[in-house]
Design brief:
Elements lengths: L3 H16 L8 E7 L6 H16 L4 E7 L9 H7 L4 E4 L21 H7 L1 H13 L1 E8 L4 E5 L12 E4 L4 H6 L3 E4 L5 H6 L5 E5 L14 E7 L4 E6 H5 L3 H15 L3 H16 L3 E4 L2 H22 L1 H11 L9
Parallel strand pairs: 1-2, 1-3, 6-7, 6-8, 9-11
Antiparallel strand pairs: 3-10, 4-10, 5-8, 5-9
Helix pairs in contact: 5-12, 11-12
Protein backbone atom coordinates (compact mmCIF):
# COMPACT_ATOMS: atom_id res chain seq x y z
CA UNK A 1 0.00 0.00 0.00
CA UNK A 2 1.13 3.49 -0.76
CA UNK A 3 -0.24 4.95 2.45
CA UNK A 4 0.88 3.02 5.56
CA UNK A 5 -1.33 4.97 7.94
CA UNK A 6 -4.43 4.10 5.94
CA UNK A 7 -3.36 0.47 5.67
CA UNK A 8 -2.89 0.29 9.43
CA UNK A 9 -6.24 1.95 10.04
CA UNK A 10 -7.97 -0.50 7.71
CA UNK A 11 -6.36 -3.44 9.52
CA UNK A 12 -7.48 -2.12 12.88
CA UNK A 13 -11.02 -1.69 11.62
CA UNK A 14 -11.04 -5.23 10.27
CA UNK A 15 -9.90 -6.58 13.63
CA UNK A 16 -12.53 -4.53 15.43
CA UNK A 17 -15.23 -5.86 13.13
CA UNK A 18 -14.20 -9.48 13.74
CA UNK A 19 -14.18 -9.01 17.50
CA UNK A 20 -17.49 -7.17 17.66
CA UNK A 21 -20.27 -8.87 19.55
CA UNK A 22 -23.93 -9.10 18.56
CA UNK A 23 -24.66 -5.69 20.10
CA UNK A 24 -22.26 -4.11 17.60
CA UNK A 25 -23.43 -6.11 14.59
CA UNK A 26 -25.41 -3.22 13.10
CA UNK A 27 -22.73 -0.59 13.63
CA UNK A 28 -20.45 0.34 10.73
CA UNK A 29 -17.38 2.56 10.75
CA UNK A 30 -16.45 4.67 7.73
CA UNK A 31 -12.92 5.89 7.05
CA UNK A 32 -12.83 9.64 6.54
CA UNK A 33 -9.91 11.65 5.18
CA UNK A 34 -9.37 15.32 4.37
CA UNK A 35 -7.63 16.97 1.44
CA UNK A 36 -7.17 20.01 3.69
CA UNK A 37 -4.76 20.48 6.63
CA UNK A 38 -5.95 19.54 10.10
CA UNK A 39 -5.18 23.00 11.49
CA UNK A 40 -7.27 24.80 8.87
CA UNK A 41 -10.76 26.18 9.39
CA UNK A 42 -12.41 23.58 7.13
CA UNK A 43 -11.16 20.62 9.15
CA UNK A 44 -11.77 22.33 12.47
CA UNK A 45 -15.38 22.81 11.42
CA UNK A 46 -15.57 19.22 10.19
CA UNK A 47 -14.15 17.68 13.35
CA UNK A 48 -16.78 19.35 15.52
CA UNK A 49 -19.40 17.72 13.32
CA UNK A 50 -17.61 14.32 13.43
CA UNK A 51 -17.62 14.42 17.24
CA UNK A 52 -21.36 15.00 17.30
CA UNK A 53 -21.87 12.39 14.58
CA UNK A 54 -20.08 9.71 16.60
CA UNK A 55 -21.73 10.61 19.91
CA UNK A 56 -25.21 10.33 18.44
CA UNK A 57 -24.46 7.44 16.10
CA UNK A 58 -23.26 4.81 18.58
CA UNK A 59 -24.53 1.40 17.56
CA UNK A 60 -25.44 2.64 14.07
CA UNK A 61 -22.68 4.48 12.25
CA UNK A 62 -19.28 5.93 13.16
CA UNK A 63 -16.62 7.98 11.40
CA UNK A 64 -12.91 7.32 11.81
CA UNK A 65 -11.01 10.47 10.85
CA UNK A 66 -7.63 9.39 9.45
CA UNK A 67 -6.10 12.83 8.90
CA UNK A 68 -5.24 15.32 6.19
CA UNK A 69 -2.39 15.85 3.72
CA UNK A 70 0.16 14.27 6.05
CA UNK A 71 -1.75 11.03 5.58
CA UNK A 72 -2.38 11.36 1.84
CA UNK A 73 -1.43 13.97 -0.79
CA UNK A 74 -4.48 16.17 -1.55
CA UNK A 75 -4.54 15.44 -5.28
CA UNK A 76 -4.68 11.68 -4.64
CA UNK A 77 -7.71 11.84 -2.33
CA UNK A 78 -10.28 11.79 -5.14
CA UNK A 79 -8.89 8.58 -6.61
CA UNK A 80 -8.71 7.06 -3.12
CA UNK A 81 -12.45 7.63 -2.77
CA UNK A 82 -13.17 6.34 -6.25
CA UNK A 83 -11.25 3.10 -5.65
CA UNK A 84 -12.42 2.56 -2.06
CA UNK A 85 -9.07 3.08 -0.33
CA UNK A 86 -11.10 5.40 1.93
CA UNK A 87 -14.85 5.69 2.30
CA UNK A 88 -15.43 9.43 2.63
CA UNK A 89 -13.35 12.53 1.95
CA UNK A 90 -13.58 16.22 2.62
CA UNK A 91 -12.48 17.57 -0.74
CA UNK A 92 -12.93 20.26 -3.35
CA UNK A 93 -13.67 19.66 -7.00
CA UNK A 94 -10.49 21.41 -8.10
CA UNK A 95 -8.49 18.65 -6.37
CA UNK A 96 -9.97 15.66 -8.21
CA UNK A 97 -10.48 16.79 -11.78
CA UNK A 98 -7.99 14.03 -12.68
CA UNK A 99 -10.72 11.57 -11.68
CA UNK A 100 -13.81 13.58 -12.57
CA UNK A 101 -13.30 16.71 -14.72
CA UNK A 102 -16.84 17.86 -14.01
CA UNK A 103 -16.05 18.23 -10.30
CA UNK A 104 -14.61 21.71 -10.86
CA UNK A 105 -17.91 22.92 -12.35
CA UNK A 106 -19.43 23.22 -8.87
CA UNK A 107 -17.42 26.38 -8.14
CA UNK A 108 -19.72 28.12 -10.64
CA UNK A 109 -22.85 27.60 -8.56
CA UNK A 110 -24.45 30.78 -7.34
CA UNK A 111 -27.48 29.29 -5.58
CA UNK A 112 -27.35 27.82 -2.04
CA UNK A 113 -27.05 24.10 -1.51
CA UNK A 114 -30.47 24.00 0.18
CA UNK A 115 -32.00 25.20 -3.09
CA UNK A 116 -29.89 22.71 -5.06
CA UNK A 117 -31.49 19.91 -3.06
CA UNK A 118 -34.94 21.14 -4.09
CA UNK A 119 -34.49 22.03 -7.76
CA UNK A 120 -32.95 18.77 -8.99
CA UNK A 121 -29.32 19.94 -8.98
CA UNK A 122 -28.28 17.43 -6.34
CA UNK A 123 -29.74 14.56 -8.33
CA UNK A 124 -28.01 15.82 -11.49
CA UNK A 125 -24.68 16.08 -9.67
CA UNK A 126 -24.98 12.57 -8.29
CA UNK A 127 -25.92 11.11 -11.66
CA UNK A 128 -22.55 12.31 -12.97
CA UNK A 129 -20.62 11.45 -9.80
CA UNK A 130 -22.14 7.92 -9.73
CA UNK A 131 -21.60 7.14 -13.39
CA UNK A 132 -18.22 8.77 -13.99
CA UNK A 133 -16.58 8.87 -10.58
CA UNK A 134 -17.90 5.82 -8.71
CA UNK A 135 -18.81 8.32 -5.98
CA UNK A 136 -21.77 9.72 -4.10
CA UNK A 137 -21.81 13.48 -3.57
CA UNK A 138 -22.96 13.74 0.05
CA UNK A 139 -23.03 17.35 1.15
CA UNK A 140 -21.57 20.77 0.50
CA UNK A 141 -19.98 21.87 3.74
CA UNK A 142 -18.63 25.27 2.67
CA UNK A 143 -20.54 28.05 0.91
CA UNK A 144 -20.37 31.83 0.56
CA UNK A 145 -16.58 31.88 0.30
CA UNK A 146 -15.88 33.84 -2.89
CA UNK A 147 -12.48 33.83 -4.55
CA UNK A 148 -10.63 37.11 -4.89
CA UNK A 149 -7.68 38.49 -6.76
CA UNK A 150 -4.95 39.65 -4.36
CA UNK A 151 -2.23 41.84 -5.86
CA UNK A 152 0.68 44.09 -4.94
CA UNK A 153 0.25 46.58 -7.77
CA UNK A 154 -2.74 48.90 -7.80
CA UNK A 155 -5.05 48.72 -10.80
CA UNK A 156 -8.02 50.88 -11.78
CA UNK A 157 -9.61 48.45 -14.23
CA UNK A 158 -9.80 44.66 -14.71
CA UNK A 159 -6.63 44.37 -16.75
CA UNK A 160 -3.64 42.34 -15.55
CA UNK A 161 -1.39 42.97 -18.55
CA UNK A 162 2.24 42.60 -17.56
CA UNK A 163 1.42 41.06 -14.17
CA UNK A 164 2.50 37.62 -12.98
CA UNK A 165 -0.31 35.93 -11.05
CA UNK A 166 -0.08 32.67 -9.15
CA UNK A 167 -3.04 30.47 -10.04
CA UNK A 168 -4.69 27.12 -9.57
CA UNK A 169 -6.93 25.53 -12.22
CA UNK A 170 -9.93 27.15 -10.50
CA UNK A 171 -9.30 30.56 -12.07
CA UNK A 172 -6.61 29.94 -14.69
CA UNK A 173 -8.80 30.80 -17.68
CA UNK A 174 -10.36 33.83 -16.00
CA UNK A 175 -7.02 35.42 -15.11
CA UNK A 176 -5.70 34.62 -18.57
CA UNK A 177 -8.73 36.42 -20.02
CA UNK A 178 -7.64 39.41 -17.92
CA UNK A 179 -4.25 39.23 -19.73
CA UNK A 180 -2.27 37.95 -16.76
CA UNK A 181 0.86 35.85 -17.06
CA UNK A 182 -0.13 32.88 -14.93
CA UNK A 183 2.23 30.82 -12.79
CA UNK A 184 1.44 27.61 -10.93
CA UNK A 185 3.22 26.99 -7.62
CA UNK A 186 2.34 24.98 -4.50
CA UNK A 187 0.74 27.08 -1.72
CA UNK A 188 3.86 26.61 0.40
CA UNK A 189 5.94 28.55 -2.13
CA UNK A 190 3.65 31.56 -2.56
CA UNK A 191 4.99 33.56 0.39
CA UNK A 192 8.54 33.43 -0.97
CA UNK A 193 7.32 34.13 -4.51
CA UNK A 194 5.58 37.29 -3.27
CA UNK A 195 8.58 38.29 -1.19
CA UNK A 196 10.97 37.97 -4.13
CA UNK A 197 8.65 39.50 -6.70
CA UNK A 198 8.37 36.26 -8.66
CA UNK A 199 4.61 36.87 -8.67
CA UNK A 200 2.64 40.10 -8.36
CA UNK A 201 -0.40 38.46 -6.84
CA UNK A 202 -2.55 35.38 -6.52
CA UNK A 203 -6.08 34.08 -6.41
CA UNK A 204 -7.54 32.77 -3.14
CA UNK A 205 -10.85 32.65 -1.24
CA UNK A 206 -11.78 35.41 1.19
CA UNK A 207 -10.63 33.22 4.09
CA UNK A 208 -7.39 31.42 4.72
CA UNK A 209 -4.59 33.81 3.82
CA UNK A 210 -3.69 34.29 7.49
CA UNK A 211 -3.15 30.55 7.86
CA UNK A 212 -0.30 30.95 5.36
CA UNK A 213 0.89 34.40 6.51
CA UNK A 214 0.30 35.81 3.03
CA UNK A 215 -1.17 38.98 4.53
CA UNK A 216 2.40 40.02 5.30
CA UNK A 217 3.17 40.25 1.58
CA UNK A 218 -0.21 41.38 0.23
CA UNK A 219 -1.16 45.00 -0.46
CA UNK A 220 -4.53 44.87 -2.24
CA UNK A 221 -7.67 42.72 -2.58
CA UNK A 222 -9.84 43.26 -5.64
CA UNK A 223 -13.61 43.32 -5.10
CA UNK A 224 -16.02 41.88 -5.97
CA UNK A 225 -15.26 38.23 -5.42
CA UNK A 226 -16.23 35.56 -7.94
CA UNK A 227 -17.16 31.87 -7.91
CA UNK A 228 -17.70 30.12 -4.60
CA UNK A 229 -15.13 27.89 -2.92
CA UNK A 230 -16.72 24.44 -3.00
CA UNK A 231 -15.71 22.11 -0.18
CA UNK A 232 -17.80 18.99 0.14
CA UNK A 233 -18.03 15.44 1.41
CA UNK A 234 -17.81 12.71 -1.23
CA UNK A 235 -18.15 8.97 -0.67
CA UNK A 236 -17.16 5.78 -2.42
CA UNK A 237 -20.32 4.59 -4.20
CA UNK A 238 -20.08 0.86 -3.31
CA UNK A 239 -19.52 1.80 0.35
CA UNK A 240 -22.53 4.09 0.20
CA UNK A 241 -24.71 1.36 -1.27
CA UNK A 242 -23.68 -1.06 1.47
CA UNK A 243 -25.23 1.07 4.19
CA UNK A 244 -28.35 -0.37 5.80
CA UNK A 245 -31.55 1.71 5.75
CA UNK A 246 -31.04 2.87 9.39
CA UNK A 247 -27.41 3.77 8.67
CA UNK A 248 -28.35 5.65 5.52
CA UNK A 249 -31.13 7.51 7.30
CA UNK A 250 -28.75 8.50 10.08
CA UNK A 251 -26.07 9.63 7.63
CA UNK A 252 -28.53 11.77 5.68
CA UNK A 253 -29.86 13.32 8.89
CA UNK A 254 -26.37 14.37 9.94
CA UNK A 255 -25.47 15.64 6.46
CA UNK A 256 -28.49 17.94 6.44
CA UNK A 257 -27.53 19.13 9.92
CA UNK A 258 -24.05 19.90 8.62
CA UNK A 259 -25.37 21.94 5.70
CA UNK A 260 -27.73 23.76 8.07
CA UNK A 261 -24.63 25.24 9.71
CA UNK A 262 -23.47 26.90 6.49
CA UNK A 263 -24.51 30.31 7.75
CA UNK A 264 -21.25 30.15 9.68
CA UNK A 265 -19.37 30.87 6.47
CA UNK A 266 -21.16 34.20 5.93
CA UNK A 267 -19.97 35.35 9.34
CA UNK A 268 -16.50 33.97 8.70
CA UNK A 269 -16.26 35.90 5.40
CA UNK A 270 -17.22 39.12 7.17
CA UNK A 271 -14.66 38.48 9.92
CA UNK A 272 -11.89 37.71 7.43
CA UNK A 273 -12.69 40.83 5.40
CA UNK A 274 -12.38 42.96 8.51
CA UNK A 275 -9.24 41.13 9.55
CA UNK A 276 -7.62 41.80 6.18
CA UNK A 277 -8.42 45.51 6.47
CA UNK A 278 -6.93 45.61 9.95
CA UNK A 279 -3.79 43.93 8.59
CA UNK A 280 -3.38 46.75 6.08
CA UNK A 281 -4.74 45.06 2.95
CA UNK A 282 -6.48 47.76 0.91
CA UNK A 283 -9.59 47.10 -1.16
CA UNK A 284 -9.70 47.92 -4.86
CA UNK A 285 -13.30 48.54 -5.96
CA UNK A 286 -14.42 49.22 -9.50
CA UNK A 287 -17.44 51.32 -10.40
CA UNK A 288 -20.73 49.38 -10.41
CA UNK A 289 -20.87 48.74 -14.15
CA UNK A 290 -17.25 47.61 -14.32
CA UNK A 291 -17.69 45.41 -11.25
CA UNK A 292 -20.66 43.67 -12.90
CA UNK A 293 -18.71 43.10 -16.11
CA UNK A 294 -15.74 41.75 -14.12
CA UNK A 295 -17.87 39.28 -12.19
CA UNK A 296 -19.94 38.26 -15.20
CA UNK A 297 -16.76 37.70 -17.18
CA UNK A 298 -15.57 35.24 -14.53
CA UNK A 299 -18.74 33.18 -14.91
CA UNK A 300 -18.86 33.47 -18.70
CA UNK A 301 -15.27 32.22 -18.95
CA UNK A 302 -15.93 29.51 -16.37
CA UNK A 303 -18.98 28.09 -18.10
CA UNK A 304 -17.34 28.34 -21.53
CA UNK A 305 -14.40 26.30 -20.20
CA UNK A 306 -16.79 23.78 -18.69
CA UNK A 307 -18.66 23.47 -22.00
CA UNK A 308 -15.42 22.60 -23.79
CA UNK A 309 -14.69 19.83 -21.29
CA UNK A 310 -18.15 18.29 -21.04
CA UNK A 311 -20.82 20.05 -23.12
CA UNK A 312 -23.91 18.12 -22.00
CA UNK A 313 -23.05 18.16 -18.30
CA UNK A 314 -22.09 21.84 -18.40
CA UNK A 315 -25.39 22.79 -20.02
CA UNK A 316 -27.37 20.75 -17.50
CA UNK A 317 -25.46 22.11 -14.51
CA UNK A 318 -25.67 25.70 -15.72
CA UNK A 319 -29.46 25.46 -15.93
CA UNK A 320 -29.65 24.19 -12.35
CA UNK A 321 -26.81 26.02 -10.60
CA UNK A 322 -27.09 29.52 -12.06
CA UNK A 323 -29.40 32.43 -11.38
CA UNK A 324 -31.64 33.34 -14.32
CA UNK A 325 -29.75 36.59 -14.91
CA UNK A 326 -26.28 37.80 -14.04
CA UNK A 327 -27.66 40.84 -12.27
CA UNK A 328 -29.39 38.65 -9.69
CA UNK A 329 -26.20 36.93 -8.59
CA UNK A 330 -25.49 37.46 -4.89
Amino acid sequence: MKFPLIKAAAALLACAAMSAGPAQAQQATLRLISAFPENGIYVQHLQAWVKKFNEEGKGVLQLNFLGGPKTMPPFEVGNAVKTGVVDIALNTGAFYTNVLPESDFLKLSDIPVAEQRKNGAFEAINKVWNEKGNMQYLARMVEHQPFHLYINKKIDKPDLTGMKIRITPVYREFFQALNANVITTPPGEVYTALERGVVDGYGWPIGGIFDLNWQEKTKFRVDPGFYDAEVSLIMNLPAYKKLTPPQLAYLNKQLLALEAQNGFWDRYAEEETARQAKAGIQTIKFDDATARRYRDMAYDVGWATAAKQSPEVAARFKSLLSRPAAGSRP
